[in-house]
C-alpha cells in the first residue's frame, strides 16, 4: 500500500490538520494531527484511525499500524523531532 493512499484515506475520513505516514511491507506508522482526535481517549483515537483502514487489514495490505496523535499546538512544537514535514 502506498503511503500517500493511507494519508488520503485518513484525511478524507477524519477531521485532521495533518496526516503523515511512513513504513513499508504492510507495516506502517502514522502521525495524525488533530485537536479533536487528540482530545479522545487512546482507545477512541485508535478506533477512529483504524476504522477507515479496516478493509486494508482484511486484504493484508496493512498488517501492522502504529499511531501517534498530536494536537496542532504540540505538533508545531514537536515536529522538528520527526522526519516528517
TrEMBL record:
Pfam families: BolA. Belongs to the BolA/IbaG family. InterPro entries: BolA, BolA-like_sf, BolA/IbaG_stress_morph_reg. This is BolA family transcriptional regulator. It comes from Rodentibacter heidelbergensis.
Amino acid at each position: 500500500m502506498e503511503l500517500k493512499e493511507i494519508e488520503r484515506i485518513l484525511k478524507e475520513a477524519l477531521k485532521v490538520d495533518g496526516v503523515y505516514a511512513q513504513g513499508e511491507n504492510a507495516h506502517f506508522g502514522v502521525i495524525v494531527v488533530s485537536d479533536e482526535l487528540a482530545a479522545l481517549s487512546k482507545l477512541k483515537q485508535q478506533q477512529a484511525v483504524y476504522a477507515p483502514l479496516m478493509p486494508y487489514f482484511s486484504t493484508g495490505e496493512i498488517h501492522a499500524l502504529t499511531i501517534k496523535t498530536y494536537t496542532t499546538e504540540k505538533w508545531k512544537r514537536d515536529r522538528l523531532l520527526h522526519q516528517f514535514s
